[in-house]
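Example record

One chain of 345 residues, shown exactly as stored in the release files.
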Amino acid sequence: MASVTNSWNESAKAKRESIAKAIPQEWLVETIPSSEEQLDVTGHCIRQFLSPKEKEITESDALDIVGKTSTGTWSAEEVTRAFCHRASLAHQLVGCLHEIFFDAAIQDAKSLDSYLAEHQVPLGPLHGLPVSLKDQFHVKGVETTMGYVGWIGTFQGKKGTGMEKIHESEMVKQLRAMGAILYCKTSVPHTLMSGETVNNIIGYTWNPKNRNLSSGGSSGGEGALIALKGSPIGLGTDIGGSVRIPAAFNGLYGLRPSSGRLTYEGMANSMDGQNSVLSVIGPISHSVSSLQLLSLGSTTRWSMRFPGEKTRRQYRTRRNSPSASSDTTAPSHRIPPFAEPSSSS
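Predicted structure tokens for this chain:
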């Protein structure tokens, strides 16, 4: 029995250490304050390690970020690097990441910048926007453990399938096609069905506002990361509150869409065959407009035209005006008006 215990403990420790080693040396915090020393880490505690530019980028709304990356005001690379840095700090403070693939994300960002320079149009409605993912999404090049020690080095607990680190969930493919940058996967409780986030790989994911409390679950890693602004928007999953609980615990906005609105094809899950109440993919972010950007962008076709800042300000003014609900000229969302791609795209 001791050898079995040592075996899984060693596997969990090795995985935990590999996550930590994926953080660049220059982003490591020398001394992490205890919760007694620093209960709330959402303010100066994390901001002190960031440059003024990184703070400006990571504290911007997702829609504002897309408006700048799609016009070249900000490069996708600098935005990606800023969020990678802040996400690494968030993980060190509250333990919220399962997978880190910053190098691949930066290469993707460089490709997007090259595309914009060559074609003078963004790739899609999420051009250059970093998006974090709950560790149920399969992404090429990294594992999906869902907090199970037994899933380390496997594809959903099975070895030798040929799908390890190769298979991608359909939603991941759609995000890439829309120009999103994927850079990390966030923590979950093993089995998922829990209102707090803890597993035998990385331990407990704490609430950034009070590190004696829970970040919620089962998308608790998303809630904690986004609360620390280590991600402008992320995707979780929800059956009975797994997006909504972390959103509430962390002062964020979360949405549980109708079943099937965001494709669940190719996702990992803990209850295969349970079809009575279906799990759905839902976004979490700091603003309703960010949820609209990702949700509507994921379910509609798009163009390559973005409004200027004047138009964007008009959108905000109309949405915030008392008469907005009766103003038929006001757009129903802040997503730039995309035209239909050609049928060959």
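Notes: Residues 2-21 form the longest helix (20 residues).
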